[in-house]
Design a protein that fits this description.
alpha/beta; 7-stranded mixed beta sheet; 3-stranded antiparallel beta sheet
């Protein structure tokens, strides 16, 4: 299951004597998160070596096990966001299930959740309650709109955060344009990961736990920091910067990251750069639609491969606009070993994405495949101090759910 990344021709697994060490070995995280932001952060924490205990409701589990595209009965959202974790399935509203999870929380280093306000309070798992159980806890939350304000209790989601922060109106001339992927969710997940790591370092160095909070709203506002500086200080909306353009070619599209004079050299029209309409950077910026109309037909005269060679020879910023098929088959993508294959007992062999980061001394990869619902319930409850009889009673009474790969024909089957 190792994703053997390479650097300068050397296999990471043989780089150092530390190759089996991970930065977060020994760190235990109780993961109540769902959707994308929280599971993304905890998945990285798991890849970094933390023991991620994913807490899920009893059969059929959370939305991520049934929503979206299915692969052999397994949801691809779940496959994408839940490797390097163990799964425990409990009814947290039942006193016995609630007591069991509090036993785990009391011994954990970190708790992460993205429930709406009030949920963790009703379960007795809010920050103050958890801090009383475990004063050194790092308690992380992710919300749609933040901890306070008139929107704090409203439901939030990726598209809504993009809408409220102006991002949708930064693309397209008239109607707002949604993003093709979950941009706000991913960015907030990276912020949650960063904040969690910083809080864990503070815990290790200073012996203090603390509450951290990330919101889709704050993360997406901050994602536009360059545009925000121009707008807040100069009242300038940089919706179509001069340096970054898309041009159609004879057989596709290309992305160009160069200024106007360099474009003139590339299309072999150097005199155009000294045209009085465009001969300064400000003129070229203000009248970019005019010069684009002039150079656009020139780009359409040749195929993308021609422009690839031309831009490479001039060491200019360029990339072809690719489909998913083309992107995942691109030699540079393959060179980075970003894709991996994982064996799943029910899904067979499936493809996924490995680590997008390189570590020279402590190489990272997923530690385990995405778990089946409740696959580790008995194991984790044992760690929480429950006896075999107590665990069996909880499973019998459906307070807990233990995945069984070969269940008896009772009409109740585990979701892989």
């Amino acid at each position: 299951m190792q994703n053997d990344r390479t650097c300068d021709g050397h296999r990471l697994s043989a780089l150092t004597e530390h190759s089996n060490m991970r930065p977060l070995d020994g760190i235990k995280v109780i993961d109540f998160t769902d959707w994308e932001t929280g599971p993304l952060a905890t998945q990285f924490l798991g890849d970094f070596g933390a023991d991620i205990i994913k807490v899920e409701q009893p059969d059929p589990g959370g939305w991520h096990r049934s929503f979206g595209v299915m692969l052999n009965g397994i949801n691809t959202f779940h496959l994408a966001l839940n490797h390097s974790k163990r799964s425990i399935s409990l009814d947290l509203k039942h006193p016995d299930g609630n007591a069991a999870i509090k036993n785990l929380v009391a011994e954990a280093d970190c708790v992460l959740h993205n429930f709406r306000p009030g949920v963790m309070e009703r379960l007795g798992l809010d920050y103050e309650s958890v801090r009383n159980l475990n004063p050194g806890i790092v308690y992380g939350e992710c919300s749609g709109w933040g901890m306070s304000g008139t929107w704090a209790n409203r439901p939030g989601q990726d598209l809504l955060a993009l809408a409220l922060t102006g991002a949708l109106k930064m693309v397209g001339d008239d109607a707002p344009q949604p993003s093709a992927n979950y941009k706000a969710d991913y960015i907030a997940g990276m912020h949650l990961l960063s904040a969690t790591l910083a809080a864990l370092i503070a815990k290790i160095r200073f012996g203090v736990g603390q509450r951290i909070h990330v919101s889709l709203l704050a993360s997406q506002v901050h994602n536009q920091l360059q545009e925000a500086e121009a707008y807040l200080n100069c009242d300038f909306l940089d919706r179509d910067p001069q340096r970054y353009r898309l041009f159609e070619t004879a057989d596709g599209w290309i992305a160009v990251g160069v200024n106007f004079p360099e474009i003139c050299e590339l299309v072999e029209r150097p005199a155009l750069a000294s045209d009085p309409r465009f001969d300064t950077a400000h003129k070229a910026l203000d009248r970019r639609d005019e010069w684009c109309e002039i150079v656009a037909p020139l780009f359409r005269e040749h195929p993308t491969a021609h422009w690839d060679d031309k831009f490479r020879d001039m060491n200019s910023m360029f990339a072809p606009v690719l489909s998913y098929d083309e992107a995942f088959d691109h030699p540079q993508v393959r060179e980075l070993s970003l894709m991996t294959e994982i064996e799943h007992p029910h899904g067979g062999t499936f493809k996924g994405l490995g680590m997008p980061m390189y570590f020279s001394e402590t190489p990272m990869s997923m530690t385990s495949r995405p778990p089946a619902l409740g696959e580790h319930t008995e194991e984790i409850l044992t760690e929480a101090g429950l006896s075999t009889d107590e665990i069996a009673t909880m499973i019998r009474d459906r307070i807990a759910f233990q995945y069984n790969p070969d269940p008896p024909d009772t009409g109740r089957k585990g979701d892989a």
